[in-house]
Each structure stands twice: as C-alpha cells, then as structure tokens.
Amino acid sequence: MKKVSKQTFEEFYNGLKKDFSKIESLPVWQEWNWRNNSYEHSVIMSEIAREMISWAKEDNYEDIGRLLNHIEQALNNAKYGVGAIIGTGFTVTIIETEDKQTREKIKALMQPRTAEAYRINLRGYKEPN
C-alpha cells in the first residue's frame, strides 16, 4: 500500500494562490517568509481570513464556500502544523469579525472540521457581539 504524503504549507498556499487570484495578490506573500515552519504562518492565515471576510461585503459567498472547502481539505489532509495554524490564525480572525451577520454566514458555510476548530477557539476567544 502506497503511503500518501500529507500536504505541506507550501503546497497548501500554492493551491490557494492558484485557485484565488485575490489571495495570490495579497502583500502578505512579500512581507512574510512563508517557506519556513514559523509563527509567520499565523499572520498569513489571518490575512487570508481577512481577505475572505472582505468577499462577504461583495456578497461573494461562492468563493467563500470554495475557500472554506480548501480549508476543510487541509484540516483533513495536511501536516499537523498546517492544521494547527488554520485552527488558530484563520478561525480566530473569523471569531473576531465585528459584523455578526457576516460572521454567521461564514460559519454556516463551514464544514465539520473547520466548524470544530471554530468551536474549540470559542473557549479562549469571544465573538464581539
């Protein structure tokens, strides 16, 4: 039986950038070293979450759903570090979203592992309203 390798940060990010031109154009890729296994990934995932949240202002829930699908796939198939950063930097940024309606719509599109990460983070972080 062939062993399937787990997705790395680089593979995860390259998939996002390939499928979402708005993510590929974020300044975060030049501002932070995303090719190492360091704390920078938390900042990068927060920026990706902020970009996704901005799509809600454009009523672009189709792309939000597609991005959340990428997130779910990574939580299921990526190396531990990738999942850990998604479970913190990404979901905490959504928790901190001021606009309750936007936050609730995004939560409704979350798949099981992403929703679980969100719920776990609610033990340490609070939604603003």
Describe, in plain words, how this protein is organized in 3D.
The protein is built from eight helices and no strands. It is globular and about 35 Å long. By secondary structure, it is mostly helical. The chain has a domain of 83 residues. The longest helix has 18 residues. The relative contact order is 0.15. The mean pLDDT is 92. This is DUF7674 domain-containing protein. It comes from Rhodocytophaga rosea. InterPro entries: DUF7674.
Topology (elements, then pairings):
Elements: H1 9-19, H2 21-24, H3 28-31, H4 40-57, H5 61-77, H6 80-95, H7 100-109, H8 112-121
Helix pairs in contact: 4-5, 4-6, 5-6, 6-8
Major beta sheet, specifics? none
Low-confidence stretches: none
Principal-axes geometry comes out as globular
Number of strand elements = 0
Protein name: DUF7674 domain-containing protein
Pfam family, one: DUF7674
Organism: Rhodocytophaga rosea
Domain DUF7674: 29-119
